[in-house]
Amino acid sequence: MKRVVITGGTGFIGSWLIDKLIREETEVTVLVRNPDKAMKDLPMHSMVKIVAYNSEEYRKLCKTNKETDVFYHLAWEGVSTKLKNESNLQLNNIRFSLEMLKLAYDLEAKRFIGTGTVAEYAFSENIMDVNGRQTPNDMYGAAKTAAHYMLETMARNLQIPFNWAVIPSTFGEGRREDNIITYTIISLLKGQRPQYGHLLQMWDFLYVKEVARALYLIGEKGKANKTYGIGSGIFKPLKDYIEQIRDIINPDLELGIGEIPSLSDKTFSSCVSIYDITKDTNFVPEITFDQGIRRTISYYKEKMK
């Protein structure tokens, strides 16, 4: 890939994807809402160009028809627990996604990659088939599902090769949103006792650098009009991951497992089959959970000094 356009580049996964693209000597145009903030968050590099939405430069970009190898659409507002059920916000995300696909068409993009989430398959009790029926549990997952099918239909009408990449539970340095990994690490580093449900769910976590590499490979080698699940391919009870984090930080610390009542009698999983992405792009994770989590713990430990 020589040239890509990316939305959501200042986000957690997007920033790591940009780093990967730079290392692969790929020219990156990053579409942002706030250029001043983006200048602080994004690397100052000759391969990176920051363009504000609806600016004169943006309009000029639309008219240049400069050939774009891949258009990565990662931008999505309202992923926090507080905002996941804000229906108007989630509907705006769908509209914006369709606008970005139209922009990709204007730029003569050779491929458009949208990013989904395991939240589309919230009630999965086994390994997720990303081509199977989605079962979202909130407006965020429902909006992602709707965006998937609307983008897929529009891409077919515009004749743009399209991929939908289902992002797994992702962890690593720089994640700002609270999740079970960051909650556990920060609580234990403070010497606190974190509380959980029974943590019997089978789970799959993937280090953010590997997620970025998977997205890069889909852009480079993915087959058109396919949905790809991204993950580690290794599934363990959620309890095992939490105990592993505790043991790395301090095995004498206590965990409040089972102290929060379960909301359902069923035990759902978050495990994605990576058969297709491995077959089509040769993606196999290189960084283990243990290696990635040690880097992440070191990052938070340094940040809390």
Indicate the topology.
Blueprint lengths: L2 E5 L4 H12 L3 E6 L2 H7 L6 E5 L3 H9 L5 E4 L13 H20 L5 E6 L21 H20 L3 E6 L1 E3 L8 H10 L12 E2 L1 E3 H14 L4 E4 L6 E2 H12 L25 H7 L7 H15 L2
Parallel strand pairs: 1-2, 1-4, 2-3, 4-5, 5-6, 6-10, 7-9
Antiparallel strand pairs: 8-11
Helix pairs in contact: 1-7, 4-5, 6-8, 8-10
Question: What does it look like?
Answer:
This protein has helices at residues 12-23, 35-41, 56-64, 87-106, 139-158, 180-189, 208-221, 238-249, 275-281, 289-303, and strands spanning 3-7, 27-32, 48-52, 70-73, 112-117, 162-167, 169-171, 202-203, 205-207, 226-229, 236-237. The chain is α/β, with parallel strands linked by helices and 305 residues long. It has 2 domains: 3-171 and 206-231 and 272-279, 3-Layer(aba) Sandwich (Rossmann fold); 180-202 and 235-268 and 290-303, Alpha-Beta Complex (UDP-galactose 4-epimerase, domain 1), CATH 3.90.25. The strands form 3 sheets. It has a 7-stranded parallel β-sheet with strand order 3-2-1-4-5-6-10, sandwiched between helices. Strands 7-9 form a two-stranded parallel ribbon. Strands 8-11 form a two-stranded antiparallel ribbon. β2, α2 and β3 (48-52) form a beta-alpha-beta unit. The model has no long low-confidence stretch (mean pLDDT 92).
